[in-house]
């Protein structure tokens, strides 16, 4: 375990871009399990889903008039 921290420290000093990209990448799966309960404890309520279709009226369709070319 000590060698892991020593290698991580060396990587952080020599190439911080790689170190932080790995740190953020590995924290992603942990956030999937920790963020929803934290949001719920703050009182966050999920928004209603946006409709993906337009409701069609339950009546016969009328023909369009008044837009004919002269």
TrEMBL record:
The chain crosses the membrane at residues 17-35. InterPro entries: Nuo9.5 (IPR039961). Keywords: Membrane, Transmembrane, Transmembrane helix. This is NADH-ubiquinone oxidoreductase 9.5 kDa subunit. The lineage of its organism: Eukaryota, Fungi, Dikarya, Basidiomycota, Agaricomycotina.
